[in-house]
Amino acid sequence: MSDKSETQDVEKNTPEAADSAEALELHESAGEELDESKSHPADRDTAGPFDAAEVPAMRPYVDLGGIKVAPREGLQLRLEVDERANRVVAVSLEYAESLLQVQAFAAPKTTGLWHGVRRELTQQMAAQGASAVEETGPLGPELLVETPAPAEQGGTRTARFIAVDGPRWMLRGVIMGKAAVDASARERVIDLFREVVVVRGDQPMPPSELLPLRVPAGVQAQRPQGDAAAQGGAQPA
C-alpha cells in the first residue's frame, strides 16, 4: 500500500449492513451439541492472523483500533460506518480484483466461535433462499455462499466466509469478487487476511461482541461509491 496506490475512505453502510455487523448471536439447536473448539491453522501464531502480543511493536501498520492492517502495494482500505450508531463496524480491503471485509469479535479464552457461527450462517442463509456449502480451505472450514441477485441483474452473488479463532478473539473475513471463485486470486487474499493483527485489549467483553474500530486521523467520511461492501455486510453474522 504505497503512497501512490493507498486510499483510505470511510463508507457509510446501509441499515441492513449495519445490523449484520452487530455482535454475533449463536443459538444452539435442540438436540445438537455445539462445537466450541478453536478453529485455526496450526501455524497461526507464526503465520497469522496475529494477536497484538505476537508482532514487533515497531512494525508499521494502519491502526484501526481493534484491527491493524499491514500496508502493501495495490491495497485500498475502506471503513464502513453505521450511521445510526455513528461507529465503524467493518474494514473492507480491495486487493487483487477482490474485496475482503474483516471484523474481529471478542471470544472466550479457551473456546472458539467459528464452528457455531458457521452453523448459524448456514441456517440463516437457507432461510433467505441462499445456498451455503462448507469447504475446507487453508485456514480450515469455510463457507461458500451464493445469494440470488436482484431480479433486474439476474444470476447469483458469490461470497466466501473465512474465520480464525485466536487468543480471546475471532477474526472473520468475507471474500467477494474474483477471489471468491478463483483459487489463485484467493491465495493472495488469504495472505492479506493472515497479515491482519487483532488488538483484543484487556477490557472485559462478552463473547461475540464486535471489537471497537476507529477512524485514523486525516481520513474523512465519504458516501459509498458502489454496493460491493454492502453486499458483503448484508450477509448475516
From TrEMBL:
Residues 220-237 have a biased composition (Low complexity). Residues 1-54, 217-237 are annotated as: Disordered. InterPro entries: DUF3710. This is DUF3710 domain-containing protein. Residues 1-14, 24-46 have a biased composition (Basic and acidic residues). It comes from the Bacteria.
